[in-house]
Amino acid sequence: MFPRDLYTLNFDGSHNNQKQRAGAGCIIRDDNGELVVAAAYNLVGPDLSRCNVAIAEAVGLRNGLRLARERNLNLSVIKGDSQEVIELVRGAQGRTQPPPLTSIIQEIKGNLGHASLLQINRASNRVADKLASMGSSLVTTESKVFTRHDEVPTQILDLINQEKAGNEGEDNRSTNGLRNVTILEAGNGEEDSHQDNDIRNVRNVAARNGGEDNRLANGIRTVGLVAAGAAALWGAFTQAPNIMRLLNNINAHYTLQYFGSDRNQVQKARAGCIIRNEGQFVVAAAYNLDNRYPGCNVALAEAIALKNGLKLARDNSVQLDVIDGRNREVRDLVLGLERMPPRFPQLSVVIQEIKSVLRNQGIQPEDLNINHVDEETIRVARELATVGGLLRQEAKVYNKLEDLPLRVASLFSANFA
Fold this sequence. Notes:
The chain is an alpha/beta fold and 417 residues long. The chain is built from 13 helices and twelve strands. The strands form two sheets. Strands 5-4-1-2-3-6 form a six-stranded mixed β-sheet. A six-stranded mixed β-sheet has the order 11-10-7-8-9-12. Strand 8 and strand 9 (280-288) form a beta hairpin. Helix 4 (126-137) runs antiparallel to helix 5 and helix 5 (154-187) crosses helix 8 (241-249). The longest helix has 34 residues, at 154-187. It starts with 6 loop residues before the first strand and ends with a helix.
């Protein structure tokens, strides 16, 4: 049974150094998308000169956790678009942080509880973003808290309703999956009729043989109905992809990491990618690009790795939350940030293939959350690419952690397990 009273917290921060303004915002909603509490904060005071975007974002998260604690709300999911803050809360080691941020992160860690912390793109965090912007403009007070719809500014209320409507669209697609269950059960009616006839025959025989046999027949009838019902339900679920996808993605946080490299004196052109759910392995693959893509350069290899990773996500019914890669050119081309066409014609083809894969799944490329990271962050994908350069065949997919080459499995365990 799914838990009741699920609450989601979204947070964001705003900082404008030129105008000397900073704000934070957060909103808590129930599992129907209804407002529970929201707040906007003006980060004024002596620490403003030391404030930056990360501090503003962290204050939004910290204050959201405080609101939840004050109201005894058990948060199940926390969402924000700040990679830096989320990585700091998860324990990532980085450059030395200013004291205000360090102390805020420590408070956050102490109040996080068992909630899942997810990084989302900014387009999916519009309500918290607008609250943070509002907070930076507050004059008469340092904070403003809303607990009723009629208190919320119209522009923010409209965004809340839009996001709620979007979530209801997802629910409707799940309902279609449930409707498929009903249709499948109806389609099994003829087979169930044969089972009922068999059960009826058992019952008739039992009636002739007395009360003891009648009790036995009732037992057989119960077992038969339970077994038939279970089989029909399982068959319906396995044939209803919307339901399976919904179950697979509840409380999940999927990350795709990809890596590609061109031919050199030692290795062939190659690519690798891996999908994980927090510390859990999902699927990985290695690719030898030499035969299909002669003259492959680094950007093309990286784009192929991304394309193949997106296809793996699609084939495994995975909804990606974060994508990590090292090539800024590929990221900017996919997101539409690079206006100049690639100089390498094959790269243009692969970029269009990537966008096609996304749009076929109802995803707009510009909504992807693609991070530009250093090579060490994606060293598991890099090692998979090395494996790809040694393959005799074009590709190898790994569906289980124990199937990975020893070196790759060791790196995965050291980094994520």
